[in-house]
Amino acid sequence: MHFKILSMLSKHLKWILLFVLALIWGSSFILIKRGLVGLTPYQLGSLRIIFATIFLMIIGFKSIATIPQGKWKYIALTAFVGTFMPVYLFSIAETEISSSITAVLNSLTPLGALVIGILAFGLDVQRRQVYGVIIGLAGSILLIVNGAANNPEQNYWYALLVVFAAFCYSLNVNLIKKYLSDVKPLAITAGNFSVLLVPALVILFSTDFVTVVHKSEVQNAMLYIVILGTVGTGIANIIYFKLIQMSSPIFASSVTYMIPVVAFFWGILDQELFTPIQYVGAVIIFIGIYLSAKK
Fold first, then answer.
1. Are the beta carbons of 82 and 172 closer than 8 angstroms?
2. Residues 154-212: pLDDT tens digits?
3. What is the pLDDT of residue 6?
């Protein structure tokens, strides 16, 4: 009986990990929103990296020694592409657009993973997948344009930062699958953040953080970023890299199907509103993702 349970868990492990990851990352957008009440985007992004690094050094410092010397260039590359740039891009974007919109646009990641896989890594493609990419992009354009029209007080050009962050994730997932599949997920994650710690500290202390850290709203915001850094970044990245290694870049990226559902829930609780046209745009994006990912 015990063996059967373990066998069943092993068989469905990638789906369990996918669900857990969606729950964690879907909650990240509201944590960013809360963290921005007191912190600048650059302070938030830096603290997120710093807290994640502290956590990962505690649980995974020894694993860094297992990274082969020749793999460090890929560790550094994936650190900046897959974590450093998106962390700041999301923080900056959410100063102008809602957490729910950010989550939906982030779901473009599987489409980007497919396009990059085709162009840079020789991935075979079917006509249906090309249609999926076109449909997904059309949905994202509809979402952004309608949001800009209905929220003139918000600068929807910032939505392009989320699109670029999704592109970074897309490139990262292909890089990890091709160059780091033989490195343990914890080692990849700890290695990534060991590379990013110094740049994050430099950016943090180039702001007015030292002079405002005593303020209550800054300290409250930092509590949200502790959660975001340890769980939403550190633990989530370990799960994500494991998922990439045991499945495929497209399957791992499909976590972004589920992230907006979680983000919508938090957005509703936080009184964020979607227009009917934006719901249509979100559905179109998901249809595009489905067509591009379906085998």
1. yes
2. 787 898 999 899 889 888 988 988 899 899 989 999 999 999 999 999 999 999 999 99
3. 47
Q: What residues contact 27, with CB distance under 8 A and at least 6 apart? A: 232, 262, 263, 266
Token pair of 89 as six digits: 């891009």
Do 246 and 10 touch, CB atoms closer than 8 A?
no
What are the extents of the domains in the chain? 24-293
**Who has greater pLDDT, 1 or 273?**
273
HEC string for 234-257: HHHHHHHHHHHHHCCHHHHHCHHH
Length of the chain: 295
Closest of 88, 102, 96 to residue 158, by C-alpha: 96
pLDDT tens, 57-105?
A: 998 899 999 999 999 999 999 999 999 999 999 999 999 988 878 887 8
Q: To 5 degrees, how large is the angle CA 105–CA 107–CA 108?
A: 80
Degrees to nearest 5, angle at CA 112 with 108 and 115: 145
Please state whether the predicted TM-score (pTM) of the whole model is above 0.85: no
